[in-house]
Amino acid sequence: MRAIQVASLDGPQAAKLVDIPEPSAEDAVLIDVHAAGVAFPDVLQTRGLYQYKPDLPYTPGGEVAGVVRSAPAGAHVRPGDRVCGLTMICGAMAEVVALPPDRVFTLPDNVSFEAGAGLLFNDLTMHHALRTRGRLAPGETLLVHGAAGGIGTSTLRLAPAWGAARMIAVVSSEEKAEVARAAGATDVVFVDGFKDQVKELTDGRGVDIVVDPVGGDRFTDSLRSLAPGGRLLVIGFTGGEIPTVKVNRLLLNNLDVIGVGWGAWTFTHPNYLQQQWAELEPLLASGAVTAPQPQVYPLERAAEAIAAIENRTAKGKIVVKLR
Predict the structure, then answer these.
(1) What is the pairing mode between strands 295-298 and 318-321?
(2) What pLDDT band is residue 239 in, cutting at 50, 70 and 90?
(3) Mean pLDDT over all residues of the chain?
(4) Shared domain check, 203 and 90
(5) Same domain, 21 and 150
(6) Where on the phi/psi map is residue 90: left (φ > 0), alpha (ψ -120 to 50), or beta?
(7) Does residue 254 sit in helix, strand or coil?
(8) Which of 53, 95, 194, 211 lies deepest, with the highest CB count within 10 Å?
(9) Same domain (yes/no): 296, 205
(10) What is the mean pLDDT of residues 182-210?
């Protein structure tokens, strides 16, 4: 089968198209992959900078969408079912994958394979962030950093379904502002001076929740943008620098800085993934939440797809198409 492999830690350009043997099914669900998602960990792995370091050569990608070829007895999916699934860390950019049944999810008929491959990492992360960790309440206001990226657009799509009344998107260009508006942002501000713009938009009150997948030097101004009792959700550090916090700021305004480690949570909470999908799937199937509209690259250009995340030219979710 065709697959992408990374044989050296030289960055995204190390991702090459090769032929490798198909996996065996054993007690797994065997999936003919139509599309695979690309995420920030894929960038870090190509440079040996991610906490999990697969043995070389490895196949990148943590998300797939496709059609079930075979399934073990008693599984909740059957041959011919449209599904999406999680390899979690790597292995997705291949024409066939074998997954444990608990990491396979029925894909609604109104969601394309390309959109399905771009759903799981971001939407399950933001379900965890907003529902489990962030305690989003109806009527609250969100500030969303990196609003034109995968996590940002997922937040803008999902938060209204759980009661968010206003979503202020932080972007770095007018082109990315258009992406954020299309995903559902009610207001858009630019990175430079975002704190003052947020204060003006909220009549000095601030926001209830900051969604921060970026980190870096904007962290302190994010804290300053919170209303009393506000929560800052730490999701990642695409800005490169891991910020620190002076805890007196938390005390003065009764603020929370909350870590959002979705992957780690799934390892300590059995059945959590299926519980999350049980909430998300009806929203997607009914159209209450729209599926993402990812940027699609052919498998042959997987290196470019990964590089688009590293160089920050990605707009929304990136996927590679295999069939």
Answers:
(1) parallel
(2) low
(3) 93
(4) no
(5) no
(6) beta
(7) coil
(8) 211
(9) no
(10) 95
